Every structure is written in C-alpha cells, then in structure tokens.
Amino acid sequence: MTPKQQHAFDKSAFKISMVQHLTQLGHAPDTAQLRDWYLALGRALAEHTTSDLVATEHDQAIKQAKSVNYLSLEFLIGRLTGNNLISMGLYDAIADAVSELGLGLTDLLEQERDPSLGNGGLGRLAACFMDSLAAQQYPAVGYGLHYEYGLFRQSFHEGAQQEAPDAWREPEGYPWELVRPELSQIIGFYGHVEVVEEAGHTYRQWVPSLKIQAMPWDLPIVGYQSNTVYPLRLWEGRALTPFALDAFNAGDYTHAQQADIDAGNLTKVLYPNDNHDAGKTLRLMQQYFHSAASVADILRRHLEAGHALAALPEYETIQLNDTHPTIAIPELMRVLLDDYRLGWDEAWSIASRTFAYTNHTLLPEALETWSEALIARLLPRHMEIIFEINHRFMQEVEAKWPDDVAKKQVLSVIDDKGERMVRMANLCVVGSYAVNGVAALHSQLVKRDLFPEFDALYPGRIQNVTNGITPRRWLKFCNPDLSNLISEKIGEQWPAQLEQLEQIAQYADDTAFQKIFMDVKKRNKQRLAGWVKEHLDITLNTDAIFDVQIKRLHEYKRQHLNLLHVISLYQRLLNEPDFDMAPRVVFFAAKAAPGYELAKSIIYAINKVAETINNDPRVGDKLKVVFIPDYRVSMAEIIIPAADVSEQISMAGKEASGTGNMKMALNGALTIGTMDGANVEIREEVGDDNIYIFGLDVDGVSELRQKGYQPEAVYHSQPLLKAALDSLLDETFTPGQPGALRPVFDSVMGSGDPYLCLADFADYVRAHNDIDRDYRDASQWARKAILNTALVGKFSSDRSIRDYVNNIWQLEAIKR
Ligand code: H2P
C-alpha cells in the first residue's frame, strides 16, 4: 500500500459502507450468506473505483493527450475483486476489515463468478494489456461486447464434454459494472443507400432498416498503485423500438416482444473459437455493432475534448485485436465521408493513420473472410466503401508492379476465385499504419509467409511486439507465498518493474534459498491437490512432477501428443519390470469449441485414459492424469503456481506466441516446448539448460513436408508409439466399447497428422526422459526453477505495452 492510499483508507467507514450495501441488497448482517457479503464488498469497493473512473475521464491532461482505443471482441478479464484490491493497495487492509465482520477475504473472493468474456489467449492478452496501460498510465479505453453469456461452462458426462450457458451476471448483476445510458449509441443494419444532392454536390447516405441501441457498461480497469482507472466499455444490444404495448394488450405477446428478442440476441453469446472462420450473420452483426458503437464513442470523446476532426490521428489510435473489429475501418470512412462530408483523400488520410492491427494466427482456416453478398445485404454502404478502398489500392499495386496479375490477386481485399469474399486481414493491412505479430518468430513468419507482398509494398509497416502477461495477477495475486519471498529478497518494486526479478538469479545456487523456493512450490501443489481431492475425488502425491497443459483445445496445440506420451508411460510401467520413473501427475484443462468434433474426441480420450490409469492399482501413485473441468482464469490462478513442467508443444510455426508459457515460467515451472511462438524467446532468456526443447523447428517442418511425410512409416518404426496408438483401438481404455477412441487414432494416421504428432513423438519422449532425470536431482531442479522465475522479466505486459507505445502508438504517460 502506498502511504497516500493507506492514509485514505478508513476501516470503520468501509465496514459501515459494506453493511449499507448489504442492507440495500435486502439482507441483514446476522443472516446474510457469503455470496451476499461478496456482493456488498464488491459494491462498496466499486464506489471508490467509480469515482476514480469519473475523475480520470474528466482529467483535462488526459483529454489533451493521445489515447489508445483497444478494440477487441474478447476481454477475458477473470475475477476483478482480488485483482482490484491488489491494484488499489488495499488487499491487507480489506482482509483486516472483513475479518472484523467475521468474514474471510479469500472465502469472499471465491464467491465471484469469472466474467468469461473470451476464449483463450487472445482475450486474456487484451485483459493483461488493459492492466498494463492503467498501471503505466498510458491513456486508454478498452472497447468490447457485454455478452449476456460468457464462454460456456464445461462439465464431463462419462468423459464427454457437456456445455451449459454461463450466465456470469445472474441473478443480482455484477457488482463492478456501471451502466452509462448517457453514452449509448444507435447502430443501424440492413437497408439501402440513397444519393442526396446538396449545394451542387452529391453524397451517399445509408438508410438502415433495423436499428439497435448500444448500451455501454463500464468495468473499471484499476491501475496498479496509480489512482488511474480506465474504462473497459462493453456494449450491450437493446431493442430500440418501444415495447409494443398495444400488441401486448391485444394478446399478441410474440410480436410485442419481437424487437426485444432480435436486439437482445445480438450480444447474448460469445462465439466459441475453434480457429475456423464460420461466416455466420449474427457474428458479423456483433462485429459491426461493436465497431460502430466504439467508433462513435471515440469520435464523441475526440470532438467533446475540442479537437478538430482532421486531428483524429494525433489524439486517438485504434488498435484492432485481430481482424474481428476490421469493419471499424470502413465504418470510420463512412462517418467521415457521409456524415462529415469529407472528401475521400482527406477521410482516408485520417482513417489510415488511426488504425493499427495485431495478427494472432497464421492458420489459413482462421483468417476471416466475409461473403460480399452478406456484407452488401447487412451493410450496403460499407460494401461500397470496401470496393472503393480496394479499387484505389489496386491502382497503387499497379503503379508498383505494372501488369502483375498474380500480385494483384494475392493482395486484393476481394477474393474473387469463387464466391466473392472480403479478406479482412488484407483490409486491415491496407487500412492500418502498423501491423504486428505477437512474438519474434511469428512476426517473421507474418512477413515471410503470410504477407510477403505487403511487406515489399509497405516496408516497415509489419512489426513485432512480443506478448506479455501482467505480473500483478500472474504472480503477486495468484502466488502470494512466492511474491512474499521475492519481496523479502529484492524489495517491493518488482510487480511494476519485472526486470528486477533478475536479482533473484544470484540465489539460484543458494541451498537455503532453494529449499524455501521449493517449499513454496510444494504448498502451491498442496493447494491444487486439495482442490482436486475436493472436486474430483482424486488423491495426488504432491512429491510427483506436476506436468501441466492448459489452453484451448486445438489439434495444432497437440494435447493428443501429450496423451500419447501418457499412454506410453502407463504401458512401460505395466510392461517393463525395470522401468522406473519419478512420480508424475499430468494435468489437462481445456475447452473444445462445441462444433469442433475432433477436439471433443481428444477430450473424451484423455478422460477415458485418465479413468483407466487412475483406477489401476498396479500404477499406484507413480502416474495420475487429471482433466480439470471448466478451465477459466480463476482455475488457472490455482494451477499455474503449482506447475513444475509447462507443456508448450504446438507444431512449430503454428502457435503465434502463447502466454501460458510465460505465466508458468514466471511461477517457476520448466517448459517442455517446441521452437514455436514465444518459446523461442523464453529459451533465449532462461538459457538452454533451463528449458526442454524438442521436435522439428519451422525449417524442419517444411523439409519433412517436402520430402513427403508418412505417419504410417513412423508408426511402424517405433514400438512404443505403435503400442500407444494401438491401445486407442482396443478396449484398454473403453471397456466394452472397442474403437470408441478411433477418431484420435485416425487423426494422426493415414493421410492425417496435419500437425506432425508422430514425427515429433520420439524426441518428445526423449525430452520428458531428461525432465524425469533432472527432477530427481532436487537441488539442480530447484536451481532451474529459480532461474525461470528470475529470467522471464521480459514477458511482463508492461514491456509489451511500452513497445506498442514507443514503436506504434506514440503515447505519453499521464501521471495522476
Ligand atoms: C491466440 C494465439 C496465441 C497467442 C494469443 C495472444 C489466438 O490465442 O493462438 O498463440 O498467444 O492469441 O496473442 P489462443 O490460441 O490462446 O486463443
């Protein structure tokens, strides 16, 4: 706590405020449940953040400074209460206050349901970035959608994933959010374009036939020890047409509610992401709704601050988190051209100096395209503008490469090889002043493989900003014991200056420090084991290696490669009398997008294998497999501090960055990983001895493909692998149901195995054997673990944000 905040906190006033909020919720202190108290706590705290939010909003210095607007369809913020307490410097003071009311702070914090407004890394990155913007006081507004249901809640029924709606605000509302009706917007859809004549000029004007109200809800992004609170503004779709009371009274209930139903559906659910572009109308509607409301709000702020329209790029920059908000580019053009009546060149000059775009994936099937027919129907004026942007862009290409049809074909915003499609990534590159990948290797591949022609046309436009994670949530909050240990050694500044962790490296060989460090790890493992015992009734050996793979389920992330290793360990334990291994618990946590069948089959297979192994008395506590259901931020906060080994095993070239890799290394886990994404940079930081790299690198992958890859040949040449795969076909793991796991087998055999699981299997096993050997040398292992924590300061999202600020956004920090 800073002295200033300490001074400002009045414990007895806060207790009174909590009781008042409790009363307003309709409860009395002597009968209130924990959940009621949690709501009262959240509301009492939110009073403080709301006043800081409003004060920040009205700060003249901020209004006169440049801001970043972070547009993202996902913000996976996780629970806010604990994190905000850390940022406000009030964690201990509030723990004390609530204990005087007879309550435990950690119990209260457990009552909060995670706002799961994202799928995985992309949404979580947006949340870490907001945290780092506020901590460093770079003016920012986050813009997202206020989904009524977050990502589905996952459970398992006989091993198979079940999905249930996640009504994260039910039933009392979320204590941290603030509705801002005065800032609502009206968003149009469908309709037609009219030509209007005025003073000898003709203008085009879109006349939408459907209008939906965008209602903003602000969540406070509280800067760490900074008194700065920025809004995360989430738009909710609401019916605009007044409720049809006449129809209702006349008994036409359905019609009376129709407008409510349509508008209410718009932001009802977050689309689950399987990295496969689905082209659904409702999704495009969400994207436009989000973009249009955000652009309107940005322009409102800009003009209300007294700035000229033409000065927009000097005061506002708009970062597009992936292509999901691309439609904001033609929307800003539409507003400038049709509403403000600027000429094309002036409008384009403003727009193309305002937007910047972050690419998060190279998977071709994930690159968004929308059919021209759909856009033309839903957003007729935007389609005209997109054609005009492309027409002018093609002239630019012609000037650079005359008569080169092939160049035009790859660069064009319109793909006209079949049904005409709009390539959102191309539109982003054309309409942005900067494009970035999310790790050094990824950015290099964006330039080399995805956009080489764009890179030649616009040298320097494509850059790299390596991802990062906020050390406040991902160390200070989630791992208090390790945080305290670090603070004892190097002081309290590290959560704001993570490079300082390097000073911990000097203790890596200190046996006393090693012991304390590993005792902390042990306690975190016990905490996780306690959770597993309570919720899944599996008893774990906390001396075992805690081997962890937690991330969205996707073939390219290769959870099934991990599974094959698990099966091979199991078979060796049973079949090889001399086989010895350090005890291991292999943890999985992952959601599969509901429409992604193979991902669901992989989950099913892992659960079946786990069930068999965990109940086989011959295995004892040598090997256990735990699939933790309903992976979410608050679960990650328990798992990550307990990890010994971090699985980052995507096929090289496919994982753009990864951020779980950073979180686990920071908490003292050793990575087993391919030369992919940010693993490459983690290795650079921690050194070869403190990471387990295996498998083909990007060049190895393309060489193998060129030679012609035959998974079958690998299968026949490796007995361990063959036995593991064969067990998927018999009844070993599915008694009475032979072949139930065949989809996983088939996915890597024959013409399958697109992500080269079999090709990397042998080296993966080798790397795991190295881990097994090293873990048995407790002191050596402790040394490696300490060095991981000490040497990953680079991966603070504070550093990522400074890279954006210095190389792309050009912002000044405004200290409050
Ligand atoms: C994605 C990429 C990750 C990257 C993250 C943030 C889309 O996340 O695949 O490699 O670290 O964005 O840039 P995810 O797979 O977790 O949904």
TrEMBL record:
It comes from the Bacteria. GO terms for molecular function: glycogen phosphorylase activity; pyridoxal phosphate binding. It holds the Pfam family Phosphorylase. The keyword ATP-binding does not apply. Signal peptide: none annotated. One of its GO terms (biological process) is glycogen catabolic process. Its cofactor is pyridoxal 5'-phosphate. It is an enzyme of class 2 (transferase). Its EC number is 2.4.1.1. SUPFAM superfamilies: UDP-Glycosyltransferase/glycogen phosphorylase. It catalyses: [(1->4)-alpha-D-glucosyl](n) + phosphate = [(1->4)-alpha-D-glucosyl](n-1) + alpha-D-glucose 1-phosphate. The modification N6-(pyridoxal phosphate)lysine is found at residue 663. GO terms for cellular component: cytoplasm. CDD domains: GT35_Glycogen_Phosphorylase. InterPro entries: Glycg_phsphrylas (IPR011833), Glyco_trans_35 (IPR000811), Pyridoxal_P_attach_site (IPR035090). The keyword Glycosyltransferase applies. Keywords: Allosteric enzyme, Carbohydrate metabolism, Glycosyltransferase, Pyridoxal phosphate, Transferase. PANTHER family: GLYCOGEN PHOSPHORYLASE, MALTODEXTRIN PHOSPHORYLASE. NCBIfam families: P_ylase. Belongs to the glycogen phosphorylase family. Phosphorylase is an important allosteric enzyme in carbohydrate metabolism. Enzymes from different sources differ in their regulatory mechanisms and in their natural substrates. However, all known phosphorylases share catalytic and structural properties. This is Alpha-1,4 glucan phosphorylase.
